[in-house]
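Supplementary Methods S3. Complex input for the adenosine-5'-triphosphate-bound model.
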Amino acid sequence: MSNNALKPLLVVEDNPGVQKQLKWSFEGYHVVLASDRVSALKQIKQVHPSVVTLDLGLPPDPTNASEGLAALTEILELAPYTKVIVVTGNDDRKNALKAVSLGAYDFYQKPIDPDVLGLIVDRAYNLYELEEENRDLAKQKYASPTGNIVGDSPQMQQVCRMLEKVGPSDVTTLILGESGTGKELFAQALHTLSRRKDKPFVAVNCAAIPENLLESELFGYEKGAFTGAVKRTRGKVEYADGGTLFLDEIGDMPVPLQAKMLRFLQERIIEPIGSRKTIQVDVRILCATHQDLDQRIQKQEFREDLYYRISGIVLEIPPLRERDGDLILLARTFLEQFNRQYGKKIRGFSESALGRIEHYAWPGNVRELENKVKRAIVLADSEWISVADLGFTEEADAVLSLNLKQARENAERRVIRQSLAVHNNNISRAASAIGVSRPSLYNLMKKLEMVGIGED
Ligand SMILES: Nc1ncnc2c1ncn2[C@@H]1O[C@H](COP(=O)(O)OP(=O)(O)OP(=O)(O)O)[C@@H](O)[C@H]1O
Ligand SMILES: [Mg+2]
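Predicted complex, serialized as structure tokens:
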């Protein structure tokens, strides 16, 4: 068996004789040695042992337990679930008890009998594994379809409530939002909430597939339909039968194909290329786009009739910069996620890094934040993520990317939205509540491009 397949066990011990003795006395473990506090912490970060034996008498003063106790505290800070077995001099019961009160799992008094110490180590490992299983179970219990959508802001709460209502229905849903706001995440949650959740969720990115291939990708083709069609091939729509078909970036679908799509949406029948037979399919349709569909309809780049077909319900995901209070929550969530993924123990963001996160305009939304935190976790030299780790320059260029005008407009939008919500979208009442006349509110909303909300 290679060392890598064995469970790592960290032995912290400064006496070379004892080191040698312990190195070979634990069967079934890959023993890693450290002879002082600093190298012990380094090994904790590198090999992530579940169990550690720690000699309390460490250099610079091996007759005194203070360095060993300091090492214990730091190990548990870095890896709180680690089982640390402290090893003490034969008459040092006081420090042994102190170590246990600081969080050590058990203690063992010298001289060392490797068989006995081996049993204590085995027991610690078993306990660690049991506890880990419990932690995993607890995590699963709380996982819900919307559970991986992070957001506390009123703006996100509102969309999530809508998501929970729309999910279980079969209604065709259009998800709108800037790039990186979480449209695909929402589409998956809608699928998971539906009765189709055990059937396929098939996503087609209409912008990524070349125009001449998109049709066969969607509807499939018959053998011999064109050169290279050596066998009948099913399209994505057929694969999704019984489940959900997610047409991502539908705003970029070529106009000729839009006509075919419309026909499919009306009849739920497909006709593979080169085939005379039609196939009935049962799919729920979800669509998403970051494009402004109104504008594309005006430019005749998107069919209006298709728009009405796909927009049974419209879920609008707000851009990150308009979600009050979600930035830090998301940043922390990504920090923990990437710490786990990369085996890092970064503690958090420096104060200036937090300031930059809060003031940056986030044009790439959640995806940009996710990428910046990932990069920072990989690059960070210290326990705290700095402005530079996040890929921001030291000057406040990014702060200014949200200029005064935008900031004012965002604030105005927020107040108007809240007032409309409180007054059930009644513009006259919303206007008087915020101290402007009805026509001025109208004009303001037009200027702020707040179309589609508010009615009298
Ligand atoms: N509210 C959220 N909570 C946690 N993670 C999120 C959230 N929103 C988005 N993400 C994550 O951000 C990334 C981008 O999300 P997603 O791919 O769903 O965005 P999108 O709107 O489809 O983007 P694009 O327009 O670029 O296709 C994903 O990794 C996703 O898991
Ligand atoms: Mg997407």
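The pocket of magnesium ion (ligand 2) is lined by residues 183-184, 248 (CB under 6 Å). The two ends are 76 Å apart (CA to CA).
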